[in-house]
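ok trying again, last paste got cut off:
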Amino acid sequence: MDTSSALLISVNDVQHVPLLSADNLQLGYRNHSYSNIDMPDICLPAQFLDEKPKELPLSDTSLRDVLHWIWDAVSKPIIQALGVEKSDNPKRIWWCPTGNFSFLPLHAAGIYEEGISLHQPPESISDYLISSYIPTIASTRSSTDVEMMVVLESRTLPWTACALGSTCNLRGEAHNPATIEHVVSRLPTASIVHFSCHGMQNVVNPLESALLLDDGPLTIRDILKQPMLHSQLAFLCACETATGTEDLADEAMSFGTSLLYSGFNSAVATMWSIADEDGATISDYFYEYLFNDRGLENRKGCLSDTNQSAHALHHAIKALRSSGVPLERWVPFIHMGA
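nice, full thing came through this time. structure:
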């Protein structure tokens, strides 16, 4: 029987961990089950939908089963091999998945049984480790000074109008036009970019996956053409920005990973459609942590440490989970890169 393995790479050691319960048959089955869960499609504007947006589906049971299997087959043996314990200040782990593992929410593995509070499950990998995803092992580098660009599309996403303002003092920045020309002109000098807008995944041609701005789609192809001279952190508060395709599983081509390839150190992205208000909540808590309540008195040379972005997302997701939202509302948010 063909089984899977994990390589745990640290500064001083490489450890092989057999994943005995993650044989090819089981892995294929779980990946198929996960890909067929009816996740919410509430992000796209009406002109991009066959019908009006629906309420969140009751997909908790199927998603809970997949997350339970990932815990037993993948997370638990890795945690045991690392010898880590539950902590209020967990250590970091960088996932570099291949094949069918590329599509699974490894960061959210846990036992979320019926009747138990979802924000206090009996087991959750987030109690042991703070997860990030990387497309290659070399996808890390250090941060420098910070200049931030914020792109808010509030005409069809009303919650973006109030997102970020209270924690980052970015109300003036938010008035910049969410147009392709403006964004492309600012990308080469921006070190932090934040997009609150709609997103679309193109499974036929991943390079045409796009963020939907006021005057049209900003595609992955457009992004990759730009020289990223100061890029550090990208926050993609849009739908399906971490979604790859089955044909390119090992190449990890999504909007989030394309930004890592183009030069960004880290990215926050989503695995499927998100609720508008959840994006606003996550953004607020994320920047509150990242800027340590100091705000941005100016956008150049501001006080922040983008190397803390994974901890910031961990903090934000805990806050969203504590409000009692169902699994499909918090699981899609992931951290990628350093």
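cool. Residues 60-82 form the longest helix (23 residues). Residues 44-58, 170-175, 293-303 have pLDDT under 50 and may be disordered.
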